[in-house]
Amino acid sequence: MKQVSVIGMGLTIEDLTAKHLKLIKDADVLVGGKRHLEYFNDHAVDKKEISKDLKGVIRYIKSKMRKKNVVVLASGDPLFFGIGSLLIKSLGSDNVVIYPNISTVAAAFSRIKEPWNDISVVSLHGRNSERELFSRLDRNKSVAVYTDLQKNPAWLAGRLLEKGIKDIKMCIFEQLGTESECFDWYEPGQAADMNFLQPNLIVLKPHPFQHKGNKDLYLGMPDNRYEYQKGLITKSEVRAITIARLCLSNDHILWDLGAGSGSISIEASLFIKKGRIFSVEQNLSRIDNIKANKKRFNVKNLKVVQAVLPNGLENLPEPDRIFIGGGGRNLMKIIDTASEYLKPDGVMVVNTVILSNVEAAIKTLKSRGFKTDIVLVQIHRGQDMPWGERLEALNPVWIISARIH
Question: Is there a single domain that holds both residue 114 and residue 190?
């Protein structure tokens, strides 16, 4: 059985060395993507195009390598998000020789003349790595992203906008190493409506103010500093007003009911240093978000509690402050049950975007002896456009504050 040579093509055939070219010339079988095989149309050898059927490709290589010299042509560096690792696993490390070359990421950073030793690289090319990508955005100065036909730059720009991540720049590299090569910087609002040449690579670079470190916590943090599910976070401006309404002190006990991402709990820790904070949430994936945010900002006095409200409160210490940011149809039951535990002179704050809940919440609070105050918060955020800026409205939020008479 002969060893299989796996040659990184770099960006184009011009990146191949004399040694690479000799191995290809002496090959009996060439395996590679359609674009790579076309460079060697004049080579009268057996050829196999790499398709989505990778198991079939591996079987083909195994059948040929017994007696023939097999050369696999891979993009960039075969072991950098390439086919190299699959071949080593499938054929055995003793049967594979890797010949690395320049990767697309290395080429991209050479174009913008920036070091890339401290960045993260995520591949969306045929992979479901979206969650990994967004979790890394807050941890690195830049993130390089491999794309594919479906998860392309416009798609990613749209996902960034959906998650409220606007303070970021996208450098999109198209067809690197070819005559059509081009690259430029875009805002997500621009890239979302554009078409880009394939193949391409994206470098995501948050604006400088985001690079203060994960523990650099302050009031009204940008939403994209948190891990959260779409729509399930108290927006930064509303968060700041809500925490002001809670009137927190150093030794308070706070219940954050229907905590979602835990953003209220996290920023409340700026004011509650000696006390304790309890984030109560029923959904397991949101529980994971809260725990990730707790770890990210190193909040030691936050406990995450899984419970289906209004149940699960009886074993918690009585609170000085209660925030209810979730609850849906059970909001009135949650208010009614939670109020039984609130300490004298305590404060309850309820946020809702549902009209019917406003009147019902106030009625419930008054029936329990609370004096209520209500404020409507309407936020408009600047949205970059190719030729200027517009204002984009967020959902209005009613913030209801309540104290015992």
Answer: yes
